[in-house]
Design goal:
Length: 332
């Protein structure tokens, strides 16, 4: 694995990379994010099985990879489907996985200019957040020590070794408590590190498209400073499949509502919204492709907050020839 010095040098190198290799670009309307980690296409072997993370970082059309999931916060637990087969457990904590291959791949991906976000929650998360603000703050500090930059003198267990992710993603799909103080503390720690010369860090979210989002409402309602959100426009009545081409005003597809949120409610006035879509027939309800998908992407691009497209998930995408090219073409 890379040393701390190597990672520090990498952060400096990334700062001067051209925009095309810089991962998430807050000034772009054509960011592409694809979730990795859950092998949702479901293959145990063969050409469509989920490959290790570094395999996908060779794809120059992908800018951001949220890795899923950190599905326990206190105590922390990670699960990456078949990629976890290459993990072991820590002798000091048998409930926590030690994943040096994923740590190595995170560094490889960052060297390739990808933004790697650790996604928290997922559909199976049932922790409910935190019982108090103090617990939330302590959990944020612990996760930062585990997955952020290495801290001198710390003895915390680090599943990815010396690798440091580029941020954290709120992907909670059931009720949670005290997620605002949790996010506020994460932001403080991130900004402190960046101000001291480290790389930029991001806090993101993946709410459902119905507004307001039930699971993340408190954090989205001006509580946490999000850099970008990747809205799940699938599995819901307001999904991408409800877009009606040729209509200036959309009755159901509610990108307009979320753009209004970005302008009037978001703590970050420059927050970007990414259009989340299923990457294959079995990836989520409301799968849309071809001209219909391109029309919805192009229509969404009119909004100031629009930042690109998110897809669920990598295994589904790679089993669906031509879909990524369709998305990239629509983004221009």
């Amino acid at each position: 694995m890379a040393s701390t010095r190597a990672l520090t040098s990498l952060a400096g190198a990334l700062a001067v990379l051209p925009t095309a290799l810089a991962g998430f670009d807050a000034g772009s309307k054509s960011n592409v994010a694809v979730y990795w980690g859950q092998n949702s296409f479901g293959q145990g072997s063969g050409p469509n099985v989920q490959e290790r993370l570094a395999h996908y970082c060779q794809n120059t059309d992908i800018d951001i990879i949220p890795i899923a999931f950190l599905n326990g916060l206190a105590p922390p637990e990670i699960n990456f489907a078949n990629a976890s087969d290459n993990c072991t457990t820590f002798p000091e904590d048998p409930s926590l996985q030690d994943c040096p291959q994923i740590g190595e791949d995170i560094v490889t991906c960052q060297e390739a200019g990808k933004t790697i976000i650790l996604s928290m929650g997922g559909a199976t998360y049932s922790g409910g957040g935190f019982s108090s603000e103090q617990d939330a703050t302590a959990a944020a500090q612990n996760l930062w020590a585990m997955f952020g930059p290495e801290q001198e003198g710390s003895d915390v267990l680090r599943p990815f070794g010396s690798a440091s992710v580029d941020g954290f993603d709120y992907d909670f799909e059931s009720a949670t408590s005290n997620m605002v103080p949790f996010g506020v503390e994460l932001r403080r720690l991130m900004d402190e590190a960046t101000a001291a010369g480290d790389k930029p860090y991001y806090i993101t979210a993946a709410p459902q498209c119905p507004f307001p989002d039930a699971a993340n409402k408190e954090a989205l309602d001006g509580g946490v400073f999000f850099d970008f959100i990747m809205i799940q426009f699938y599995n819901n009545f307001c999904g991408i499949n409800s877009f009606v081409p040729g209509q200036e005003e959309q009755a159901t597809f509610n990108m307009q509502t979320w753009d209004d949120w970005a302008a009037s409610t978001s703590l970050n006035p420059d927050v970007k919204i990414m259009l989340g879509v299923p990457a294959n027939q079995g990836a989520g309800g409301g799968y849309t492709e071809g001209e219909a998908l391109a029309a919805a992407i192009e229509w969404s691009g009119r909004f100031a907050s629009f930042g690109g497209v998110m897809m669920w998930d990598m295994s589904q995408l790679y089993a669906n020839d031509g879909f990524l090219e369709n998305v990239v073409g629509a983004l221009g």
